[in-house]
Amino acid sequence: xxxTDTMPEKREQHLCEDCAEKAGVIIKQTHHTTNxxxxxxxxxKTGLGGxxxxxxxxxxxxxxxxxxxxxxxxxxxxxxxxALLTPLIQRAHEGxxxxxxxxxxxxxxxxxxxxxxxxxxxxxxxxxxxxNYERAARVRDQIRTLEIG
Length: 149
What we know:
The chain has helices at residues 17-22, 34-46, 63-69, 77-80, 82-92, 109-129, 133-148; strands spanning 2-5, 11-14. It is mostly helical.
């Protein structure tokens, strides 16, 4: 089994089937649900002992229960377990932790440009509402650059 891990830096591993199973990379048994595979991934990436004492103040889910079930109990769990979940989310979403929307890869450059301008206009309005005029000026300049170019 050849594994290339690119986060946070590129690292290659070459493992036999037994070593890959011990590392949690593969599971030899063939009848596993998606949830069971996710649980193995979570346990492997977070470490088996980490977060045992963490619990969500709203739903009471502990991080250990999350590791076993592979499912969060409520939206507040993302805050309660942020330190342990962020690396998992970044790895699953190519370094991103915030939803930024999607533009189809086949979209023309003008569609992408217009989407960017709309996003910047929202940012500009937020900056004005917060009376953060330095940020508003920077965003205004970014909008002008996109509209001209």
